[in-house]
């Protein structure tokens, strides 16, 4: 199972393997205070794409399509995470305030599609 969670939310026993999926370290969090198992910077949107989305020069649909295009270059890393999600819970941690329109949700959908294709 692959799920998403804001990294500012409390840690839960149901989180399983916790993966930080932001390219930048989150503000206000000490590295010793964040409970995570892996930091997958390569699966985060590129700096250019992240900035364009935050500047609202593209809508979420365009961002999602562009992000999926970027993710296509990281099939191996994505498959490893998808496989882990097939064998247990993987929680993708993100800092964005919007819990529905964020890159972690797009990444989760992409990982689920890799798991079902494999």
Helix/strand layout:
Elements: E1 2-6, E2 17-20, E3 38-39, H1 47-54, H2 60-71, H3 75-87, E4 90-94, H4 103-117
Parallel strand pairs: 1-4, 2-3, 2-4
* Rg, nearest Å: 14 Å
What's the total count of β strands?
4
Fraction of helical residues: 40-55%
Strand content: 5-15%
The pLDDT mean sits at: 93
Instruction: Give the helix/strand class.
Output: alpha/beta
The succession of helices and strands, N to C, reads EEEHHHEH
Coarse morphology: globular
Give the distance, in angstroms, between the N- and C-terminal Cα atoms.
Answer: 15 Å
* Unreliably modeled segments: none
The number of helices is 4
Largest sheet: 4 strands, parallel
> How do the strands of the widest beta sheet line up side by side?
1-4-2-3
